[in-house]
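Might I ask for a little of your time on a matter of protein folding? The record follows directly beneath this note:
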Amino acid sequence: MAAALAFRGGRGLSLCLISAGVTKTLALAAFTLVWTHSIEKTDWQEDWRVTPQGLELVQARVKGSGAGMEPPPEARLVDGWFQWWPKRAPVPEVVLGNSGLAGEWRLCADGACRTLSEIVGHPIGPNPTTMRACEP
C-alpha cells in the first residue's frame, strides 16, 4: 500500500477530495484506491501518486476478470491478482461515481483503509467525488 493516510496539513502537495460541497485535504503523497466491481463483486485496486502535474496512476490490480473489467494483455498474475503498470500521463483530476450497488470507494495508505464517507464526514450517497492534487 501507499504512504501514511494522514488527515492534517503538511508541506508540498496533498490530495483533495470534493463531494457534495465538502472539500477534505489529505496530507499524503501516495495512496491506493480500492473498490468492488458492482457486477462481478471482485476487488480492484489502483496505486496513485500526487505530483505537481496532477494524479499519476502507478499500478492497477484486479482479483479476476469479466463484465468490463478484463485486465490488459500486459497484466501478470501475481498472488491471485492480475497486475499491470499503466503508462499514462498524470491527470488534473479523477471523478469517482457511485452506483450504490457495490459498496463505497475506499482510500488506503499505510495498511489502513477508510471509505470516502468516513473521510468526508457524511454519507456520499450517489454524489460524485472529485480527487485532485492540491496545496495544503
User: Anything to note?
Assistant: Helices lie at 116-120. The mean pLDDT is 83. The radius of gyration is 15 Å. The chain has one domain: 14-134.
